[in-house]
């Protein structure tokens, strides 16, 4: 009897992440959690008071522990995480992003049988553009402690090559699984065409995301502002004041919306999305734009060429080339045949990045970690 009970016991997975209720990490977890909740026993630890994922569990709350931010920098949150692992008898620690991974790697010293998998959602060097000293510290810690992670799950080949070739992590510890998007996140496009062509930016207002470049692109259209409207959605950046002042200076042409909870509705009202990033490990905004039938114009950097096929499912521009972005916007507006080709190509491309495929790959990777126990 005990043998059968042990055999049927579900693997217990502790998901440890830096908490936000929006953005790429939130979308990533909302896509992944339905499969994890079916296959594993899930416990969550984050900086949030609650995780807000109960609707993914039939309305039932998912067990959640808050790890106060200030504690993360005191022995890497050891006291909180050790107590959680002991109390919950955790089999697998699943961390989001490299920084939370580094904060918790040392737990393997106390729990040798604990398996540690981390999803690599972005390239640390992207943040280096904002704070070199801070990121160099994390890179140094990464190189010292990489062997305490059982599996690095990168969300693009770009990140695989970055961690494999540049950080020296052995190939057998690295896996690649693209992010996927659930079909339920699609809504129909509006049927009424407005007088202005609406160009949007969705994401952090930060340097590595190229928000300053988006503002420069918008300024190029000021002379013809009756024909265009530029809108920015997002927070977590240092350029919100610039966005607000531009909105005041050019009302009706430039609009800064800040963080918007119902971003799906706004997506369906845009005519094009601009992603002028200086680095991208992936980009959920691209998949969302594909599903909404919104043409994508983005930088030819990082993992973006893995998502966007130039001239077929979007337009790739040389990074930082304002003229190329301006030309692409005008072409999409004025060339209906090209625009429809891009929209159709984007929807077809989105089928390669399904939520089911992502869920199956992550479940298989977690199972593989405990298969030999």
Outline the structure in words.
This protein is 43% helix and 16% strand. It has 17 helices and 13 strands. The chain has helices at residues 2-8, 23-39, 69-72, 78-88, 97-104, 107-110, 124-128, 132-145, 157-166, 211-219, 240-249, 263-267, 284-292, 304-307, 322-334, 336-350, 355-370, and strands at residues 12-17, 41-46, 64-66, 92-96, 115-120, 151-154, 174-176, 197-202, 228-233, 254-258, 272-275, 296-299, 315-317. The strands form 2 sheets. It has a 7-stranded parallel sheet with strand order 3-2-1-4-5-6-7, with helices on both faces. A 6-stranded parallel sheet has the order 10-9-8-11-12-13, sandwiched between helices. Helix 10 links the parallel strand 8 and strand 9. Helix 2 (23-39) packs across helix 17 (355-370) and helix 13 crosses helix 16. The radius of gyration is 22 Å and the shape is elongated. The two termini are 20 Å apart. Mean pLDDT is 84; it is low at 1-6.
Key features of this structure:
alpha/beta, disordered N terminus, Rossmann fold, about 45% helix, six-stranded parallel beta sheet, seven-stranded parallel beta sheet, about 375 residues
Helix share, percent: 40-55%
Mean pLDDT: 84
Following the backbone from N to C, one meets helices and strands in this order, namely HEHEEHHEHHEHHEHEEHEHEHEHEHEHHH
| Residue fraction in strands | 15-25%
Contiguous helical run count: 17
Give the CATH superfamily of the largest domain. Glycogen Phosphorylase B
At the fold tier of CATH, the topology name of the largest domain is Rossmann fold
Q: What composes the largest sheet?
A: 7 strands, parallel
Corresponding CATH architecture of the largest domain = 3-Layer(aba) Sandwich
Overall number of domains: 2
Give the C-alpha Rg: 22 Å
Specify the structural class.
alpha/beta
Q: Class of the largest domain, according to the CATH hierarchy?
A: Alpha Beta
Number of strands: 13
**Through-space gap between termini:** 20 Å
The side-by-side strand order for the widest beta sheet comes to 3-2-1-4-5-6-7
* Tertiary shape: elongated
Question: What low-confidence regions span 5 or more consecutive residues with pLDDT below 50?
Answer: 1-6
């Amino acid at each position: 009897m005990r043998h059968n009970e042990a055999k049927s016991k579900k693997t217990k997975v502790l998901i440890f992440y830096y908490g936000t209720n929006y953005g790429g990490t939130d979308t990533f977890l909302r896509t992944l959690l339905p499969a994890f909740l079916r296959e594993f026993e899930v416990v969550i630890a984050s900086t949030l008071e609650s995780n807000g994922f109960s609707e993914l569990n039939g309305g039932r709350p998912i067990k959640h522990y808050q790890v106060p931010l200030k504690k993360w920098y005191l022995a890497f949150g050891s006291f909180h995480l050790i107590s959680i692992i002991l109390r919950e008898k955790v089999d697998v620690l699943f961390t989001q992003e490299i920084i939370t991974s580094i904060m918790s790697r040392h737990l393997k010293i106390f729990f040798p049988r604990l398996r540690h998998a981390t999803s690599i959602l972005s390239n640390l060097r992207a943040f280096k553009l904002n704070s070199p000293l801070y990121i160099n510290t994390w890179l140094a810690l990464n190189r010292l402690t990489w062997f305490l992670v059982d599996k690095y799950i990168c969300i693009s080949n770009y990140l695989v090559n970055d961690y494999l070739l540049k950080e020296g992590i052995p190939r057998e510890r690295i896996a690649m699984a693209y992010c996927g998007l659930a079909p339920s996140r699609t809504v129909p496009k509006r049927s009424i065409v407005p007088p202005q062509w609406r160009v949007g930016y969705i994401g952090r207002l930060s340097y590595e995301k190229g928000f300053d470049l988006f503002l420069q692109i918008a300024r190029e259209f000021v002379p013809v502002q009756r024909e265009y409207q530029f809108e920015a959605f997002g927070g977590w950046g240092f350029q919100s004041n610039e966005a607000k002042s531009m909105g005041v200076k050019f009302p009706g042409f430039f609009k800064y919306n800040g963080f918007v909870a119902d971003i799906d509705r706004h997506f369906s009202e845009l005519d094009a999305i601009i992603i002028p990033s200086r680095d991208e490990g992936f980009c959920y905004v691209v998949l969302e734009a594909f599903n909404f039938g919104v043409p994508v114009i983005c930088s030819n950097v990082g993992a973006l060429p893995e998502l966007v096929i130039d001239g077929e499912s979007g337009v790739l521009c040389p990074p930082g080339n304002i003229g190329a972005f301006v030309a692409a916007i005008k072409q999409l507006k004025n060339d209906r045949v090209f625009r429809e080709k891009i929209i159709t190509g984007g929807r077809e491309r989105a089928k390669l990045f399904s939520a089911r495929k992502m869920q199956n790959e992550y479940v298989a990777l977690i199972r593989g970690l405990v298969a030999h126990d």
